[in-house]
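== Protein entry: sequence and backbone fold ==
=== Local backbone shapes as whole numbers ===
==== Amino acids and backbone structure tokens ====
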Amino acid sequence: MIKTHKVALNPNRDQIAWFYQQCGYAKFVYNSAVSDFKTELSANNFLSMYDLNTRFNEKKKAFDWTQAQDQRAAMYAIHHLGAAIDNWRKKRAKFPRLKKRGCKHSYTTDEQAVRVEGKRIKLPKIGWIKTYEKLRFRGKIVSVTISRTAHRWFASVSVEVQPPIHRCPASPECVDWFASKTEVGTPHQIERSIYPTIGIDVGISTLATLSDGRKYENPKALKPYEKKLKREQRKLSRKVFLSQNWYKQKRKVERLHYRIACIRKDAHHKTTTDILIGVNSIGIETLQVTNLLKNRKLAKALSDAALGGFLEKLKTKAKALGIPFVQVDRFFASSKTCSACGYKKDDLTLSDRQYHCNACGTSIDRDVNAAINLRTLAAGYAES
């Protein structure tokens, strides 16, 4: 089982310059391999990933500056192109395109010459680099990807670990594990049937509403920075494209986007962690986020809430802890169905925040009613 921990780096100026150099080298290799593949494809000659790698190894002898680079960055760049070609052949993606200058900076290296000790990591040809935190997982390092997001550099360390034994999230050790996000002593397994089944209804104003009445508010990370972001983007549009001032202003816009994304991600992780403490099983709804974004009046609020990312984090953590989750049918009317008698109210509008049943007279919060219906389905599925 392979797990990845994305660690923030604290490099100096020379190390940052080395990162940019390796990212540029990986981009150069990728574009060179794409050009070779296109040329041979036009002549009805298909080149495999290994053929592209062999051809570039011969081509790089003409460039003396390539000898000082990390050759693993070139190897993984061609591997990534091979994966892109496979996706294109299986019609899962479009034909791979050339990478432009100024796009995402990243390169990958393997486990050779990579060591992690405390709050530092050793990379090939550059040596030790300080990190802001320790590596979370223990095991054999498979690969390391160095990437830049705004003004920060990160190392995504993939580690081969043993599959975890499902543990009870309500026990003291697991509560500490949730809080610190680190592996604790010996995993244990406790009967989970004593804990309740919950239903979770997600929304815009309230990020998650549970069937027991608990509500988690949406942080609305974009709203406090919307005016400032608009102002900085307007400044960026007035700069000469690809000039030095344009790049400086672009960094400011990137830092704003990065801060907004961090606030949103932090709220998602804290909410999902708190939900999964002391839970037997989960009932969640199936959302087609791309279809929801077609509503221009709700598109900005839906994008800010990032409901798809929230549900994905919830499912990933539940799967790691062995908590079963049930996704109800896409067209199940959880909000329009009465949780007490099962009556379906077809005239319920989005502005009606309180559910009043015309059959039994039940009056309940709209989101709580939907969460109870999801819990009922999850409980029935578990029993069957």
Notes: The mean pLDDT is 85. The longest helix spans residues 244-275. The radius of gyration is 25 Å. The chain is about 40% helix and 20% strand.
